[in-house]
Amino acid sequence: MPGSFCTVCRQRISKGSRCATHATQSPSSRNARTAKWVREIRPRILARDNYACADCEATVHLEVHHLDGDPQNNRAENLLTLCDKCHMERHRQADKLYFMSPT
Questions:
Q1: Distance (Å, rounded) from C-alpha 87 to C-alpha 41?
Q2: pTM higher than 0.70, yes or no?
């Protein structure tokens, strides 16, 4: 299947499944933003962060979080490796702050 591969080790995986080694989901199932994100930016950030969540040190189900919330801002200092649970919690906290702020 074209585009179904681990974004870390480039091993082919079936659509919707995860790499057995890195537990990353295939880009085709996640609707990856761009080829540059999949091939360059995301793997570089995962490697920089030693393939571990910055919050809980998990090494599976890793995602890259945009600290400022802007998916177009792919500067390294704006990106952080998080597991899916910590990533969801970061967004939950950001949403809570947004809705609590005075208008």
A1: 18
A2: no
Q: How far apart are CA 28 and CA 62, in angstroms?
A: 16
pLDDT along the chain (103 residues), means of 10: 61 71 57 72 95 96 91 92 93 71 58
CA distance 15 to 28: 6
The rounded distance, in Å, linking the Cα atoms of 91 and 19 is 25
Tokens of 78: 């704006």
Q: Which residues contact 101 (CB under 8 A, 6 or more apart)?
A: none
As a whole number of angstroms, the distance between CA 102 and CA 2 comes to 47
